[in-house]
Design goal:
single chain; alpha+beta; Molybdopterin biosynthesis moea protein, domain 2; Hypothetical protein af1432; four-stranded antiparallel sheet; three-stranded antiparallel sheet; 13 helices; 41% helix; 11% strand
Length: 367
């Protein structure tokens, strides 16, 4: 049986097996997952400021292969008859992902560069084109990954989600473009946070947390003197951790004083942070993350939440899901008003489960 646990870097010993890949900001793998650690690996981790890593012991248990489900012709006919294509989704080609990945790394490493604003505009242009090319009105969160490095992945995810949410909200193309820039730059202030605090695997001390909360102010300071960046973008970066009940930071302002860009960025930022695994936390499931967003009405703008829920596709049509009754089912239709409960067809029996409309399915969920 394999055991996995977290070990602080200073407590690592030669011969331990690392259970994660260590990647630099250029996406180069420095230490591959499964590597038997040597002293020089441990020294490199310390030099990089990585406070701890996941280690594994033992061998994986042999896993019995799931028996392939034989889908009857009648069930396939039912699936084909009921299938309704998803709303147009934003698609990032590999070349766009490469350009965006390189661009965002440049921005976070060169905040003082003369061409900083132009670089941000070019990345937002790429994302805007990806949205307009197929008139995308939804985003499949499973398809966004552009990098294994959290800061870059998160910034592009938040920008892309926020742009689609802004489109659903009814914003103009110019505003959608601007909120894309704000999303790309919303965490740029973290470039001023010491790496040992930024990547600390355990709970932050009060002083460390107070410093971390300064990243919105640091980001605003970076952008403040850049006249070519609009005030709305700067406010989006400054206020994306504010809450409508006044319990956010850095200013503790209430709903009426929070810019709409910040309100939309906040929902997008929280969702992507929840579903992403970090050294100090496990990722939440997409279902749990959406339910948490839905429960945050005292803190998040209700219209921003509604626009988010109407923009995200969790279970793309054609995907196979596992139901709480043990059945595997094919997704045939999504309901924008109930993204957790699509219409599905059991692969074994051909039974149709309309999770959002059939009261007989009230106790059935997708696991």
């Amino acid at each position: 049986m394999v055991k996995r646990f977290f070990v602080r870097t200073r407590q690592l010993k030669r011969g331990m097996v690392i259970d994660q890949s260590i990647v630099d900001r250029a996406e180069r793998v420095l230490i591959a997952r499964g590597t038997l650690l040597e002293e020089y690996h441990i020294a490199a981790l310390l030099k990089l400021g990585i406070a701890g890593v996941h280690i594994r012991e033992g061998e994986e248990d042999p896993v019995e292969e799931e028996k392939e489900i034989v889908v009857s012709k009648q069930t396939m006919n039912t699936i084909q008859k009921l299938t309704v294509a998803d709303r147009s989704k934003v698609m990032l080609t590999q070349s766009v992902k490469q350009r965006v990945s390189e661009g965002i790394q440049y921005l976070y490493s060169n905040a003082g560069a003369d061409n900083f604003s132009d670089a941000a505009n070019h990345i937002a242009d790429d994302l805007m084109k990806a949205i307009s090319d197929n008139d995308a009105i939804a985003v499949d969160v499973n398809m966004l990954k552009i990098s294994d490095e959290y800061s870059f992945k998160h910034s592009v995810d938040v920008a892309t989600i926020a742009m689609i949410v802004a489109k659903k909200y009814g914003m103009s193309n110019e505003q959608i473009h601007e909120i894309g820039i704000a999303g790309l730059l919303h965490d740029v202030g973290k470039s001023k946070i010491p790496i040992e605090v930024l990547n600390k695997p355990g709970k932050l001390t009060d002083n460390e947390f107070a410093l971390m909360k300064q990243h919105t102010l640091f980001g605003y300071e970076i952008l403040k003197e850049k006249e070519e960046i609009s005030k709305a973008i700067k406010l989006g970066v400054l206020q994306h951790h504010e809450k409508i009940n006044g319990k956010g930071y850095p200013l503790g302002i209430c709903a009426s004083r929070i810019h709409i860009y910040a309100k939309l960025l906040s929902v997008s930022d929280i969702y992507d942070a929840l579903v992403t695994e970090r050294p100090y936390k496990k990722a939440f499931s997409q279902r749990d993350a959406v339910e948490m967003i839905m429960s945050m009405t005292p803190e998040l703008d209700i219209t921003a939440i509604e626009s988010f829920l109407g923009s995200v596709i969790l279970y793309p049509v054609g995907s196979t899901v596992k139901l709480s009754n043990g059945e595997s089912a094919r997704v045939v239709k999504n309901n924008p008003n109930s993204i957790l409960r699509p219409k599905v067809v059991s692969l074994k029996t051909g039974k149709v489960y309309n999770l959002s409309e059939d009261l007989n399915c009230a106790n059935l969920i997708i696991e």
